[in-house]
Amino acid sequence: MSKHHSLLQSFGAVMVLDGESRRIQAVSRNLNKLLGLADTELRAISPATVLGKRLSQRLRQELHGRQRLASPLAFRRLHDTTRLQVHAYRTHRHVVVEIEPLSPLGKRRLLGTVNERLMRLAEATHQEELLDYLVTAVQQLTGHDRVSVCHFDSDWHGLIVAEAQGGHLPALLGQRFPASDFPITLRRTYERHPIRLIHDASAHAEPPLPCTPEGESVDLRHCFLRAPAPERQRYLQRLGVRGAMSLAMQGDTGLWGLLFCHSAAPHPVSPPVRDAVRTLVQMATQRLLLLRARQEARYLQRVQDSLVLSTNARVEPQSPVELLSAQAETWCSLFRAHGVALWLKGSVYADGHTPDAAVVAQFVKRLDKAHRHSGPWCTRGVASEPLTESLNMPDQCGILAVPLPMSVAQRGWLIFFRPEQVETLYWAMQPTSAPLPPVMVAPSAAWCEEVVGKSEAWQRVERLAVMDLGEDLTLAISAYEISTLNMHLERERKALAAANQRLEQLAHFDPLTQVWNRYRIEQAIDAELVAAKRYGAAFALLLFDVDHFKQINDTHGHSVGDDVLVSLARLVETSLRGCDHLGRWGGEEFVVLATHSDMDAAVGLAERLRSLVATLHVSGLDQPITVSIGVAIWQPGDSCKTLMARADAAMYRAKRSGRNRVELAEERVT
Ligand SMILES: Nc1nc2c(ncn2[C@@H]2O[C@H](COP(=O)(O)OP(=O)(O)OP(=O)(O)O)[C@@H](O)[C@H]2O)c(=O)[nH]1
């Protein structure tokens, strides 16, 4: 335990009791003065002599099983007008009682003033207004020479953001205190004891006097009256400060800042004023957090408003290139960036000031390895960051990159770039490590430093917002990929349908005449045979053959022969009923399947067709075209083969009987 942990400031007095709070084991030297006791009396006192019987009993009760008094107790000693305030807490072995005089300040008046200040604080709508009002109000209450608010940045450097000046100390507004001024142990202390009062930094600190022979050193680390550590004393001296009070401004994620009250001369602050300042600071901090939360919410809303992508994308999906060219400007202004790149499946899409595509790809490769989790990655010093220092990014200083979880195996990246922002920082006091310039400057003189090679810092809210944007973009790109995939599928489906149709055509139609081929007409005949067998519905087959076709071919050429076949098929097909079918049986032979037809109807149809064909005129052919037709009527027990054989025989009979005729097939002998 370092020595100063058992030294005390003298603006109050301390009594160290045993663990039972029954016996005094040590007191501070000034206790007798505070209580108006003779030095000789000190050795013989008990808690009851100091506090009175009732209060010492109450103290024992309240500390029973508790670490500290819930709130201070006030008392007045017999025959004495001074009111005193008592605080007490337990250490490992002792109970430490701190006693301070209460100034006869009009408590009512103080309350009224504090209330009025609180109301004003609660009405502030901007951080600057709020803090300016806070420092002014605190200075009026405590009378310190200078009251400042110091805000910590993410590196724990403190910037003085508001200040009220009484004139005796130099201004610190806009200056910074290095993080080394606020070591972690000091910051932790503020979590436990949000207020620190140093009445006189130069005052001689004293150890408590042991009152019993076994009196041992007491740990006064948590004592409000503890003396400042020697290094803190020196620090304040360098600042020209003797009286100091500081209060923690506790944010939701840690210490937001500190409120400092400094005076060039020793400066006491009575307990009620301290309480009032503490209330004001707490209220201001709450208000501050609320204002910041509102500001962040407004910013996030703006980012949300720009996230129409996913909704739009569902209606009209855009490609990554389209997305980027439509949104890059908005995104860059939201994230205060001068360039943005989108890395997807090995391709880089970029807008604004970005490094070369090859450099982006290299960066992504490293990032993918080094940064496995789903949150964003950022730096404000590309050249000094191990991941990026060897990459050629001359125009970039800051990078904010968010992964896009496109698939389990592969991530895309959305990357924002910020330029360098040369910043002049004003530091409070010369650094102790730096040698002093030959001409002595006041040790408290500020010095300024130009910070190069850094971009503006990426704010917490920006890192949150970029995750929203990343998610939205992932959705938009996935929607686009799905729609492109669907488009391909649709195209393939159509191509397949067309191929199927072609296949069907080839399989079922005669390529020359476009009427059914033999295979298809046979299928139709078989189907008709099944129906006829089941329902007894008669049907007929008409087999016809062009007369002297060889001679047409030989005389006029094959192509005229083809024309004859095509014209004939067209003519016959168009003159048939919808329920009858025409098929090419082979060569110049055709078959008509006449459904629901008995002998009369079939012969009638054959005759009609025969005379119709005789009227056919084909260009390049001056002779009439005639056909010989054999008609076979379905009989129970018929197959396609037997029916066709009968029709064929009838047709040959027609040929033999002089052509251009219809012959009815003989009935099958059963
Ligand atoms: N142009 C053309 N000719 C074909 C086609 N298919 C078969 N032929 C010809 O049709 C002719 C049929 O002749 P034949 O079987 O002797 O009969 P025909 O000359 O019509 O005599 P009859 O039937 O007895 O009146 C042959 O010369 C075949 O080459 C075809 O698709 N186009």
UniProtKB/TrEMBL annotation:
InterPro entries (alphabetical): Diguanylate_Cyclase, GAF, GAF-like_dom_sf, GGDEF_dom, Nucleotide_cyclase, PAS-like_dom_sf, PAS_2, Phyto_chromo_attachment
Enzyme class: transferase
EC number, UniProt record: 2.7.7.65
Catalytic activity: 2 GTP = 3',3'-c-di-GMP + 2 diphosphate
Record-annotated membrane-spanning stretches: none
Family annotation (SMART domains): GAF, GGDEF
Record's keyword terms, sorted: Chromophore, Photoreceptor protein, Receptor, Sensory transduction
Record Gene3D superfamilies: 3.30.450.270, 3.30.450.40, 3.30.70.270, PAS domain
Domain GGDEF residue range list: 537-667
Record's keyword annotation contains Nucleus: no
A Pfam family it matches: GGDEF
Positions of the Phytochrome chromophore attachment site domain: 126-286
PANTHER family (UniProt xref): DIGUANYLATE CYCLASE DGCM-RELATED (PTHR45138:SF9), REGULATORY COMPONENTS OF SENSORY TRANSDUCTION SYSTEM (PTHR45138)
Protein name according to UniProt: diguanylate cyclase
